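pinging the channel bc i need a second pair of eyes. not urgent but kinda urgent?? the chain im working w is below, pasted from the shared doc
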Amino acid sequence: MASDLEAKRVVVTGGHGGLGGAVVDAFVAAGAVCYLPQRGAATESGRGREVVGGVDLTNEADVVAFYAGLPPIWASIHLAGGYAGAPFVETTREALQNQLGMNLTTAFLCCREAVRSMRRSGAGRIVNVCSKAALVPSGGAVAYAVAKAGVAALTRSLAEEVKSENIFVNAVAPSIIDTIANRAAMPKADTSRWPKPSEIAKTILWLASPENGLTTGAVVPVYGST
């Protein structure tokens, strides 16, 4: 797979998060060049990493300008998002809009601009991040579940629209990921059952590789044993 991704250009949103770091590491190890948008000023880039600052992924103009400024890309990986939980009757309209913005709007805009870029080279791969909460809802985070369910619908619908162009669109659906932040939030949890970022990264890497010549429109569960 390393040779398949050698020198291929890959966008990774949320590349500085708990999952994002593992995903970027996996793509760089496979020989890809990763473009990492971030809201603040650009930090120092490194081997296989090009950081682009001043990009608000909920802002349409920012996303359009970011993708337009890149050479044609092979893959776009959309990890940016956020979680907020609350009982349903305590969930405000603002909270719902925030979850839709962070999770669905960012994925929608990035998918759209990624397709524009991939059409310039005639092929590509898109991987979104859904959630087990959208597929197996348990309550307590309805706004988050609704937003991630939208990501699943976006993935499946877009996959049908662009499959004849050799652009494959898939998503992974993690349960609780074994990150420092999640361990701090749930200190009594059995973290041995949580999927590790590096494990999820392997699934994303394969879905985004040229080696994947069949799978599109899938929302792949990466639950671990939770």
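so The chain has a mean pLDDT of 93. and The beta strands are 9-13, 33-37, 49-52, 75-78, 124-129, 167-174, 219-222. — does that match what u expected or am i reading it wrong
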